[in-house]
Amino acid sequence: MPMPMPIAQIPTPAVALDGKGLVYAANDAMARCLGVGAQELIGTEFAGWAEDPDAMRAFLRRPGGRQQEFEFHAKDGGKRALALSIASTDTTSGTPILGFDTTALRECERRYRAIFEVASDWFWETDAALRLSHLSPNFETAMGMPRRALLGKRRDEVADTSEDGERWRVHLATLAARHPFRDFIYRQAGGDGGLRWLKSSGVPMFDAEGGFVGYQGATTDVTAYLDAEAAADRKRRDLEAELQHAQKLEALGALAGGIAHDLNNTLVPVIALAKVTVEKLPEHSRERRNLTTILEAGGRARDLVRQILAFTRKEAPTRTTVELSGLVRGSLKMLRASIPSTIHIDEAIAEVPPVRGDPGQIHQVMINLVVNAAQAIGETPGKIAVELATAPSELLDQAQHPWTGPAVRLSVQDTGCGMDEATVQHIFEPFFTTKAAGEGTGLGLSVVQGIVAQHGGRIAVASRRGQGTRFDVYLPALSQEETQQLGMNGAAA
Amino acid sequence: MSKRILIIDDDLAVRDTLIAILEDRGYEVITAVNGQQGLAVFRRELPDLLVTDIVMPVKEGLQTIREIREERPDMKIIAISGGSRTERHDFLEIARQLGAWDVIVKPFDVDDFVARVDRCLGA
Question: Which domain holds residue A261?
Answer without folding.
Answer: 231-297
